[in-house]
Structure formats: C-alpha cells, structure tokens
Write the structure tokens for this entry.
Amino acid sequence: MTAATPLKILMSATARARLGDALDDALQGRPCQIVTSTDDPATAPGGVDAAYCSRDVTGLSTKHDIKPPLESFYTSLRRSPGLQWVHVHSAGADRPIFAELADRNVRTTTSPGVNADVVAQTALAGLLMLARHFPLLLAQQRERRWVSLVATGMPADLAGQTALVAGWGPIGQRIAAFLRLLGLTVIVARSSDSPVDDRTETLAFEDIARCAGRLDWLVLACPLTERTRRWIDAGVLAALKPTARLVNVARGEIVDQAALVDALRQRRLAGAYLDVFEHEPLDPASELWALDNVIVTPHAAGHSDGNERRVDRIFLNHLRAWSAGQAARA
C-alpha cells in the first residue's frame, strides 16, 4: 500500500459509530473506506485490507455455535484476498478462523489484559463462594431451610491454604495477588519453570504432579495450546486431595471434562467453579448443571461494560501504526 491508497477496513456499524473522530485521528489523514459488516453471510462484503472484530460482532456466538453476524464477518475475511491484518476483542486467538488466517499470512492482533481485572475478580468470587459453601447455602435458600453451618460442616480457613495458578499473564498475576491478600500460598504453573519472582514456586505445565498433592485450589487462567489441551486429565485430578477445588476461567478444553465430572460426582474433588467448557453452550443434559458442588456460569467471567473502551484503545493504537506503514504489533 502507498500513502495515497485508501484503506478498506471492515467493522460493525456499532463500532464505527462508537469510534467516531478517534478513527480519523488514528488514520492521521490517510484515506480510508469503512466497510460495514452485515448480519447475513449471503450479503457479506469482501475486498478489505483490515478488519476489527469487536465484541458486538461476536455477540452471542461461541466457538462451537457461530451465529449469522459472526459467520458473515468470517465470510468477509474469506472474500478478501488482500487482507493483511485483523484485530480481535479477545485476549486469545484460539478459534479456528485464526489458524486459517495464519495460513494466509494474515496478521492477527488481540486485546490482552483488557478484561484481566474482571476475570480475576470473577475467579475470586467463584473461589470464595466455594470456600464459604455458598452452593449449599443457596440450595437451602431455595428450599427455605434454615440450616447452620455448624450442622453441615465448618468452612476451612483460606489463610494457610495453597493454590496453584496456571498461567502468568495479566489475569493469572491479578488472581495471584488477590489470593496472597487472603493469606494463601501461591504456586505458578506456566510454559517454563523459570521463576516468576524470588518468592514464588514456579513449574512448567508438565510438572504439575510435583505439587498436585499439596494443592487446595487449582486455578486455571492459562492459554489453550497444544501443551495445555486436556492438561488437567484423570491422572492430575486423581493426584489432587479430595478436599481440593478447581476454578476454570481459561478454556474448557484444558480440562478432560468427562474425568472432571466423574471426580466431582464421586467426591474425589470437593468442588469446581466453571466458566468455560469443552463445548459451548454447555449441553442442557450435562451433569455439571445439577451437581451440588459445582458453580456453572456461561463463559461470562470477562464481561464488563468497560471492556469496549479498552479494546477500542488497543485497536486504535495498532491502526495508527499500521496505517503509517508499521507492522501492527501482535
């Protein structure tokens, strides 16, 4: 592209209206044509140079259940042989479309950290609910039964417990900070065993067996990769203490879901807070919905009304560099 060549950028009408003059500022006078995505794959435009996949484009779609607006957006990407760059609202790029784009040498940038605080807060909420026996208490509320925890079993103090936090990105680091404030000892599992600091036991994903028997909490906040796919399998679950609990705000495919259900049903694992699943939406027939030691939420851990603003800022920064002829930073 030369400086005089108009850029064709695909985005939703909602994103265009929200960005307003900030889009023109980022382009720094570069000619540009905004191509608006459609809700119908049959009318999806093509021939774009770049695309902004904002949250409203993904909408109610999941990785496994793609609704027409997102399918239309994907169709536009496929109809654009000159496509160079796509920015996506999520922190991860593990949907199949991104592998397809990589095979075409299309650069994809993501939005790491925009929902880190929100996800960490949600993970902490799930952990605290399990620790304080809220699944039991809420069931008793629905049944209008007043039953003291003295009768059903005292919750264990969190201070002095041990949690393994898997992943050391912005989310994992925030979760670890919260847990330390509550008096827990934090162990970190990540892609390498290089210590994250001078006070934290750190191990590679494959070495979890080294500490599994010491864990009270296993908190998953790591990316889905070939190393982490089904990383938490029946063997890992069996190595955990029966009083241990799992929190998953990462990706469902990191856990062998059938093995997890079996461990929870047989009380070989005390409980779980699950925001993500092997297949989404979670099948209404799944046992996870009904297990009394499980909290299920619909992949909602990162949702917040402030995310759009933070993602827009990252996109505009990338756009400013890209339109000036610099590579969009990954």
Q: What stands out?
A: Residues 7-114+306-323 form a domain with the Rossmann fold fold (CATH 3.40.50.720).
